Amino acid sequence: MVFLVFLVVAIAVVVLVMRAAEKSGGTGGPGLGTPRPPRRPKPPRDARPLAPDDDPDFLRELERRTRRDDGSPA
User: Fold this and answer.
1) For FRET with 57, which of 3, 27, 43, 48 sits at 20 to 30 Å CA-CA?
2) pTM for the complete prediction?
3) Are 31 and 38 contacting, i.e. CB atoms less than 8 angstroms apart?
4) What is the DSSP string of 22-56?
5) Looking at the DSSP assignment, which residues form a beta bridge with residue 67?
6) Most distant pair of Cα atoms in the chain: their distance
7) Mean pLDDT of the chain
């Protein structure tokens, strides 16, 4: 019975310490409470569509290739 009470108290202490470290801005590693270094900004994504069937230039070129010289579809 004493072991069960000790276990519950230990878990409560660990939870309280973790919450206190979170609020102080700690990283959870060595030197709790030290601020994290700033993150580098992510490079901007390419503005072009990812899939070829979403690319208007690709669709235009595909349509041009499928047409015959006289302008009728292949």
Assistant:
1) 43
2) 0.34
3) no
4) HHTT--SSSSTTPPPPPPPPPPPPPSS-SSGGG-H
5) 73
6) 93
7) 77
